[in-house]
Amino acid sequence: MSEEADPPISILPSALAETQGDRPFVAIVRSRQELCRWLSNPLPGLRWLQVEGMLGDAEAWTEAAHSNCNIPLDVVVSDPASEFSHLYRLVDACAVRAIRVTMPAAPGLAKAIRLAAALRLPVRVLPGQPSAAALQELHDALQFYLHEATVEAPVEFFHSVLATMCDSDAGSLWTILEEDPDVFRHYDADGRARMPRTSDPDRSEITSAGFVKDHLSRLITQGAECATCPWQQPCRGYFKWPDPAYSCEGVKQLFSSIQTAGNEIRQDVASFAEADKGISSEPREATR
Amino acid sequence: MSERVFSVILLPTSDCNVACDYCFEHKEPHRLSLVLVPLLTRRLLDHIENQHIEECEIYWQGGEVMIMGPAWFEDARKIMDRAAAERGRRFVHYLQTNLIGYTPAWNGVIRGMFNNSLGTSMDYPNIHRKLFNGGAAAYTELWSRKLREAKAAGIAVGVIAVLHKGSLEAGPERFYRYFTEELGLADFQVNTPFPGGPAKEVEDGFQLDNSELAEFMVGLFDIWMAEGYSSGVSVGPFNSLIDHFTGEQARLPCIWKENCSNQFISVDAKGTVAQCDCWVTSYPEYFFGNMFREPDLTGMLKTSRARRDFVERPKRLVEDEDCLSCRYLSICHGGCPVRTYSALGTMMAKDPYCEVYKAVFACAEAHAAEILRARAAPIISLRERHKAVDPCLV
């Protein structure tokens, strides 16, 4: 899924999306009829469809596999523990369009990530402010992502944070997870902009640009642990939202594991680059 | 247009000209009439059009396909390819035959319709493939002669071998040498057996011990890697697994697909539709419908209750079996439904050859790692040399 700085991509319910025209937007579909409507006649601004509550609807996936347009799908798995096996329904549709699955850090996450990896489906995990049980799932999923050789597709946010730790600028968790309001503007059914992970549309933060910057500044001013956190750049206070008192002890262990893996990769790359330099400076056989 | 391919295992006859012990097919003299080929073609084209698929692969097999005669195939091809071209679609034809009926009269059809290649079958040792008059030794002699004639005509021949107790007793070395040296083949595939259809006494010979079978498969894999891999010999499914584990595009066999129900069907001479040839010839309880009586193949596949079991199987396996924790799930997905059904009477279980597959996958993974190491060897050896003079380079 691509990310654009200006204008923000609107993420809004299917009915509201009808008026978007060629402005960039993501339509949230919650029924087979809505899915078929956008697959059969997409507006020019449609970037992808966010498909919610439909993983168990086999008929919907048959339709998604037969449609002639190649609009990508972001399929939300809201309860990984009970829904993970339904990922097999996406196999046919994957052959004709890009499909990503999005799931919360919740019981069953590790199982869902295992199956998604087996089906080569990219994954976006929305960690929110994870509970102890969710942290254990995240930890198991991270170890699987980092060390299982059969994993081919990216698992976000692990993937982009790892890239950041290997000297590649992949942005902060806010952009990686498509929750930065400057880039991705979420709307409710009444058309009101809302902050991610909160149902309160009246939070004043949303009205101003630079939410992430302001949020981090506020946290630092308030003496939050972000001030001295070594992972402030890739995080930028992500785990302190909406509750600024959330303890980051558990998520710091996740960052630490990713950092360790990143260090190993950087060392490997550096040593191979050094050897490669040696090869290219080796005397070559004269051309006959 | 989708890049997907739809495959059809098409049985123009269930009749056969040989009498193999382990054949699970219900032999009958029924043949697909040329009068019905346009209807069959239309149904297939309607379906792939509904699915936005451009290409349909037709795997012609039987029974024994050569019973139909080369002229029948010439006519069928003309009907099918012309109809496909008119609708902007394409059929690609493949031939699987026992070769017993092969004569030079087939060469033109094989060249024009089947890209000058065919698939056939032979076991080592051959004790179960038999002529009606003459038994297994006569079969082997006749088949070998036909193989030589086909190869002499420039036809590329791939061979499928079904393993049995005798193969395991002979061992992988003799098995490999038979196909590569005695028959001079550069392309063969080993299949695990299964007791399709009604049980028969001889099928006891196909109930192989999994650990013995795994040992044989791994031994054969090792021999192929040592002697055949670098010299252009292709042994399926090992070659596909090496491709997979070395990061190349791999076309794994149907037994290891995410869901075989999405990718092919089988149709017999009477229009019966089922999952594959094993189902269409053996298990009426799993027929999807009849192509000549029902006007809409897409609708039939969508609504068939029998087919629903195939669609649901991989989902059930990750819920009920230990497949989800298996590191080879991405290349196996619980294995083959018909192997499971024929052994256990249900397809809602993982393939009984699970342990064999795991041994083969692990062997492939290890060999692939060696290949990747060998490709990186010049860099690694240079790095070692640099480390000798610069201990900081680690």
Could you characterize what this model shows?
The complex is a heterodimer of chains A (288) and B (394). Chain A has helices at 14-17, 32-40, 58-66, 80-83, 91-94, 109-118, 132-147, 158-165, 173-176, 211-221, 232-235, 249-281; strands at 9-13, 25-29, 46-51, 73-76, 99-104, 123-126, 155-156, 184-187, 193-194. Chain A is of the alpha/beta class and 288 residues long. Chain A has a domain at 9-197: TIM Barrel. In chain A, strands 7-6-5-4-3-2-1-8-9 form a nine-stranded mixed β-sheet. In chain A, helix 2 runs parallel beside helix 3 (58-66) and helix 7 packs parallel to helix 12 (249-281). The model of chain A has no long low-confidence stretch (mean pLDDT 90). With 394 residues, chain B is an alpha/beta fold. Chain B has a single domain (2-299), classed as TIM Barrel (Alpha-Beta Barrel). In chain B, helix 6 (172-182) crosses helix 7 (210-228) and helix 8 (238-245) packs across helix 13 (354-389). Chain B is globular. Chain B starts with a strand and ends in a 5-residue tail after the last helix. The mean pLDDT of chain B is 91. The chains are: A alpha/beta (288), B alpha/beta (394). At the A-B interface, helix 3, helix 6 and helix 12 of A face strand 1, helix 11 and helix 13 of B.
